[in-house]
Each structure stands twice: as structure tokens, then as C-alpha cells.
């Protein structure tokens, strides 16, 4: 896979229960099981009877190195329907069918897996997989809302090929993405401080077409925005990720909206922000766009001197959101600067009416495309926190830590913080 899993995020070896529902995506759970076992976790697979129609018990036993049971009557002297749930430090259900989500939401316990879900006191992650119509059915949506309200992490299914010729939302996310999110949940435990919140995160760089083959853009990779979206989902938030020209794998647990230009980014963000608790503007919109877009490829002139391209200024999305911000809504802006970073960022903080602005100095081979980031957080309350270089995943959690405090209304005055 090219992505290491040993000691992922520094999480110690734990006891994981992998629940497998009766859907065609059950075969993908084999890869998820391998990721957990190869990272050193002990895994007990608890499939439903229907799941065994897709992948047999010998496969689960061979891959996990542990016996597999589906009934509460198996090894009844060990009271498995209570013991398995009590021993678990994390439960991941993948695929979670509509039937399983309904049973979990209503406390129905008619097999070993649903009994385990009732007795588990650890974090539970559900990875739904079903046809689009089933996912969008009001009954399923109500069950998902119930489970999320109780503290479970129900991740958004992916969009793609389903069974047969069908395509749409309902596909099981990539196993590695489920694994990564599960590890983040495991790291935080039951501290889901964004539970019940809707957050919108933008990522990547917009592109403004010059002609059918050329565009005006920037170097943003979207890595920091994706890290923010993944971290929010792991902290229990309903997460909408608006991605501009990003080639990263689709993260599990988020609603992904793809855009290309700054105007497309603006339209999608303004729409999503209408019901959001938090908006994090991590994308890098192009500041300018051509006044006109050539219908054909622009050719070199005989003189060798290119014709001038007239530019116009794109809308300031963050400023528009700041002006329309509701009471209690939190806006986080980003300032990528090549010089005078703090001075420019403080001006942007005021202009955009943001609650927090994340400042970093950028350039060739610096920040854009890198896995680490060095940032300063400027708060509307006058606070300043300078952070040395950290992995972008850690930067994301640091930003959400600050946002969680803002949401709780606990921000006060005092001396600016300085962290090194």
C-alpha cells in the first residue's frame, strides 16, 4: 500500500472487535482485518449469520488467529455475549448494513454481534454500506442520527460502484481509510468533543481556466484540509469536505464535494455553511481569474510576445462568510504568506471577521505538498500561539482543540500563549 501502519499514531496494542454485517462488501473487511492485525492489535471477528454467506468462518479465523462465533449459544459457559463487549477497547462494524444500524439504534440483540454492541462500553465505529436508496431512506437517516447522538461514530459511505450496474452513495470506504479513522477514534477514546456538530472544511487549490488546456492556480495539495476533515470525523462531527483539485484518497467519514474554480468553491461553501457550526477555510482559492476564457488553445504569436491576459479579482469567500456569520458559528481562516506573515494575517483576521486564523509561511517546497506544517494561531480575542513544525495530522487536532473551546464559549482574555 505504501502507507505504513506499524505503531500508527503511537497507539498501543488493543483489543478490537470487528463486526461484519451481511453485505457484499463483507469481503473488504478481510483487508481491514489484516490492517488491524499487522499493526499488532488483537482482533475478534464477530460476523452475522448473513455475513457468513459472503465470507466463511474459516477465513475470519485464519486471518485473525482466533475462533469465530456468531451465536450467543457458542461456548455459552464463557458468556460470550457479555465478555466480548466488555473486553473490547474498540468496536468497528464494517460493513454496517441498514438492518444492523436499525437493530443497534433500537437496542435489538438477536445475535452475538448485536449483543456485543449493547454490552460494549468502548468507542464504536460504524462503516455503512448499502444501496443509495437504503442510505437515503428516512428510517436509516433517523437510525444514524440516533446512533451519533449516543456517541457512536457513523461514517459517511463513499460514492462509487455498488452491486450490479448501480452507482451512487453507499459504497464501503477504502479499508485503509476506515482503519485510519478507527485509529484516531481509538486514540481519543470516548472524548468526542465535536459530537452533534456539523463542520465544513475546504481543501486544495482552485484553478481558473485560461483556455481549454491551461489554468491559473497554485501549489496547494489539500493535505492540511484533508487532515482537518479526518480529525473532525474522528471527533464525532458530521463533516463536509469541499475539495478543489485534490488527488488524495477519499477520507472515510466525510461528505465529499468536489469543485474546480473559486466560484464553484464559493457556491458549495456558502450552501454548506448555512447549517454549519464551524467553517474552516483551509483551501487556497485563486485570488484572480481571467476576464475572458479563450475558446481554443492560445497560440504563440509570430513576434513571440504573448498577448496580455486581463485579470479580475475573485470573491473573498472567507470575508463573505464572516459577514454572514450566525451567532455561535465559528469561522477559521487560513493565511498563507511569503513575507510579513503575522502582520498580513492580523489584517485578514479583522477583514474576514474570523474567530481564528491559521498562519503559515509558504514557498517552493515549503508547506504545500509537505506532511508537516509550522503554524501560528491568531485568535479574535488577541491571543497568539506559535507552534513548531508538526505533522499536519497533529496540527489538525490542535486547531480542533481550539475550536472546541470556542464552541463551548470558554475563550477569555489573558496573556497571549506562546508554545514552542
From TrEMBL:
Residue intervals of the DNA/pantothenate metabolism flavoprotein C-terminal domain: 194-404
Cofactor note: Binds 1 FMN per subunit.
GO CC annotation: phosphopantothenoylcysteine decarboxylase complex
Region (Phosphopantothenoylcysteine decarboxylase), start-end ranges: 1-198
Pathway: Cofactor biosynthesis; coenzyme A biosynthesis; CoA from (R)-pantothenate: step 2/5; Cofactor biosynthesis; coenzyme A biosynthesis; CoA from (R)-pantothenate: step 3/5
Keyword match Metal-binding: yes
Keywords: Decarboxylase, Flavoprotein, FMN, Ligase, Lyase, Magnesium, Metal-binding, Multifunctional enzyme
Enzyme Commission (EC) number: 4.1.1.36, 6.3.2.5
Region feature (Phosphopantothenate--cysteine ligase): 199-420
SUPFAM superfamilies: CoaB-like, Homo-oligomeric flavin-containing Cys decarboxylases, HFCD
CC cofactor: Mg(2+); FMN
Pfam families for this protein: DFP, Flavoprotein
Substrates-to-products reaction catalysed: N-[(R)-4-phosphopantothenoyl]-L-cysteine + H(+) = (R)-4'-phosphopantetheine + CO2; (R)-4'-phosphopantothenate + L-cysteine + CTP = N-[(R)-4-phosphopantothenoyl]-L-cysteine + CMP + diphosphate + H(+)
Alphabetized GO MF terms: FMN binding; metal ion binding; phosphopantothenate--cysteine ligase activity; phosphopantothenoylcysteine decarboxylase activity
UniProt binding sites for CTP: 287, 297, 334, 348, 352
Domain Flavoprotein: 15-162
UniProt-listed GO biological process terms: coenzyme A biosynthetic process; pantothenate catabolic process
Keyword Cell membrane attributed: no
InterPro entries assigned to the protein according to its UniProt record, in alphabetical order: CoaB-like_sf, CoaBC, DNA/pantothenate-metab_flavo_C, Flavin_trans-like, Flavoprotein
Family: In the N-terminal section; belongs to the HFCD (homo-oligomeric flavin containing Cys decarboxylase) superfamily.
Functional description taken from the UniProt entry: Catalyzes two steps in the biosynthesis of coenzyme A. In the first step cysteine is conjugated to 4'-phosphopantothenate to form 4-phosphopantothenoylcysteine, in the latter compound is decarboxylated to form 4'-phosphopantotheine.
HAMAP family noted in UniProt: CoaBC
PANTHER family recorded: HOMO-OLIGOMERIC FLAVIN CONTAINING CYS DECARBOXYLASE FAMILY, PHOSPHOPANTOTHENOYLCYSTEINE DECARBOXYLASE
Protein name from the UniProt record: Coenzyme A biosynthesis bifunctional protein CoaBC
Organism: Paractinoplanes atraurantiacus
